[in-house]
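=== Per-residue structure ===
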Amino acid sequence: MNNSHSQQDDPYYIDFPNRVAACQSEMASQGLDLLIGSRLRTISWLSDIFCPWRSFIIIPPKGKPTLLSFIIDTARIANESWLGQDYVQGYGPMEGMDQIPALTDCIQKITQKSQIRIGVESGMSNYLPEGFLTHYEYMALQSAFPKAELINAYSIIDKISLIKDQGTINRFREAARIVDVGHQAIFDVLSTGRYKGMTETEISGIASFAMRKEGSEWEWSFTGGNEIASGYRTAYELGCCTPATRKKVKPGEALMIDIHSLFKLCMGDHAHNYFLEKATNSQLTHANHFIDLVSLCLKSYKPGITPSTLAEIMMTAAQEKGCSEFLVPGFEHGIGMLGDEWRIGINNGPLPFWTNPDHSYQEGEIVICGMQYNCPNEQIGFRYENPILITKNGCDPMSKYPLGIEVIS
């Protein structure tokens, strides 16, 4: 899915050994003898490889980590990851070869001590493929190493992955460029009337084909790939998950286009909105409110602002326009390498594992500026999503597709 054998003069180069070293430094500060990364975000961030199976990355106190994945995929992983064949191992459905014996073997190769401190990743999430250690895995590891202490160390990767390096930023920029190509392909179909009779899934396919030709590796989103919604499906109350269906797109409806790309495990995500053929004055008023609010949100992002402060700014502006009941009171979601798609900033707030609403954004963070505006009574809704880089004085939207809600005549 990605070619990780890049050189330092490659704009998409990431120093993965340095990432491992940073992880090992944090491990040492916590007195850990090793760390077992089980979350998809951890595996992506450290290995730079697509792992669709239940996988683990075992980080020793020094040297390369070992990636453990389903045996049918290890040849590809070893070939495409920077780790190489000697540091990729497989597990399978044979006696003594399932996940726990395989993990045990890896640990015993790292250390022969029985009284060890093993870092694991445990917790909860609203994100289905998070990858936290299961209860069975935890108990099996404890049984295999009865004198070991299992320490929850999920925060190590969360902390050191927060500020993005230049190679990662460049990957996100390319993913955003690819998404813009997908939007243009859809506009070309809409503007010539060829959308009539098409389904949402067909509209999704137009974007997918265009983005694949540009190098996108996957419509990454776990919310159903490209999210295409028309008519009443744009207006679900608090709705932010609209996978394309076989519903036909009709003139007279609102159309929400939320498309996704993947480039070297970094993700493009941008949403654009239309009215097909006509819009009432009331609907256009809602559209203008939404565009004004998106513009304000983008202007408000900067170092030092917090999610809670941003929400206050936005909801106050919506109240002044008389449209606060239509605006979902959340204005971002997280983004990172594949598997890191929901948490914003650091999750050290009052609710365990959730985003700290008082996290102060820093220069070098990337989040999705995400906004949802729903009017169920009028069967219209609008969405805006765009990856933004927090810069010294503000933010840099990575998708350059023009902001607007267009009436396709």
About this structure: The radius of gyration is 23 Å. The longest helix spans residues 166-191. The chain is about 30% helix and 20% strand.
